[in-house]
UniProtKB/TrEMBL annotation:
The chain crosses the membrane at residues 126-146. Keywords: Coiled coil, Membrane, Signal, Transmembrane, Transmembrane helix. The keyword Transmembrane applies. Residues 74-111 form a coiled coil. This is tRNA (Guanine-N1)-methyltransferase. Residues 1-24 form the signal peptide. It comes from the Bacteria. The keyword Membrane applies.
Length: 199
């Protein structure tokens, strides 16, 4: 952007200089023609040229006009050069300001404020992925632990149900045995009473 502005200012300066040079050449050609006319219209006297006062005064006025115009053109060019230099300096300062602002924005864009800390995007990304993968690993571990605990619980329930059934069966067998033993005892007690009574 700086080069474009400098190139455009330089092109403008060259254009102005060439236009002024063309005008100066035209004026110079006019002066040369006036001088040639003055010499041609002058009279000769013993190897000297005699020039009319009016002609020499006109030529002098034309020459003074040319000199004043050239001085004014030179002053204008110097003023224009100074103005261009001031503009170039102002543009350079503006460019420095823009570059500084751009660098600050690039630095701000490369960083993220997280919990009041300025962290680079790469560090933030790595941290977030690490946290995500850690949370995912913890979730997988908890899921597998839950699944294993659920399996153990189901097996324990099945085993408990089997044990309860076996206990109920054993209890039933024990009750039957106890009843049969009571009957036998009762029968034996009855036999023994019968034997005592008989004897």
């Amino acid at each position: 952007m700086k080069r474009i502005k400098q190139n455009s200012i330089l092109a403008f300066f060259i254009l102005c200089t060439s236009i002024i040079t063309l005008q100066a050449q035209e004026k110079s050609t006019k002066l040369t023609n006036d001088l040639s006319n003055l010499i041609d219209k002058s009279n000769s006297f013993q190897d000297y040229k005699v020039i009319k006062k009016a002609s020499i005064t006109n030529f002098q006025a034309s020459l003074n006009s040319y000199i004043k115009q050239e001085q004014s053109i030179q002053t204008n060019l110097e003023n224009q050069i100074n103005a261009n230099n001031k503009e170039i300096n102002a543009l350079e300062k503006e460019l420095k300001t823009i570059k500084n602002t751009n660098e600050k924005l690039a630095a701000e864009k490369a960083n993220i404020n997280f919990l009041g800390l300025s962290i680079s995007k790469e560090s933030y990304s790595i941290t977030m992925w690490a946290l995500f993968l850690g949370a995912l690993a913890a979730a997988v571990i908890l899921f597998l632990s839950f699944k294993r605990a659920n399996k153990v619980t189901k097996e324990s329930k099945t085993l408990l149900a089997d044990l309860e059934e076996e206990y109920q069966n054993y209890r039933g067998v024990c009750v039957e045995r106890e009843q049969s033993l009571r009957r036998q005892l009762f029968d034996e007690v009855k036999k023994s009473k019968d034997l005592k009574n008989v004897s």
